[in-house]
Amino acid sequence: MPCATSSASTPLVDMSWLAAHVDTENCYLATTGRRSGRVHEVEIWFGIIGDSLYLISGNGPSADWFRNALAEPFVTVRIDDITMAGTARQVEDASERRRVGELMGAKYPWDGDPSIGLTFVAWCFDVPVLAIEAWRPVDGLAG
Predict the structure, then answer these.
(1) Which of 54, 58, 94, 120 has the fewest other C-beta atoms within 10 Å?
(2) Contact (CB, 8 A) for 53 and 112
């Protein structure tokens, strides 16, 4: 399924769809390859605060999905049987980053990943975070 493209005429969506998925384990993020132009989908943990869906890049800023989303911010997210298009941005604000870390740490208690030198605390508070917002339906796929 192709990622979303920008359209000023596409209406934004009521965010009630996100609230129903606060406790869902994973979502599927589709990005457009920054070099290939092909769609890439990853399964990933997520958190929700208000109208924003957050993704932590445990592999840091070099993760392909993260770099793809920064290069082409129009992405799609699938949670259960609902697929929506949104616009990605890197979280730069320290207080927003802390809120995301607290939320994700509470939702996903784990021990980190020693194979890549990632501690739980670093995952929660240090590595890059992507926010996805400005939700739009995807060609009749939104449920």
Answers:
(1) 94
(2) no
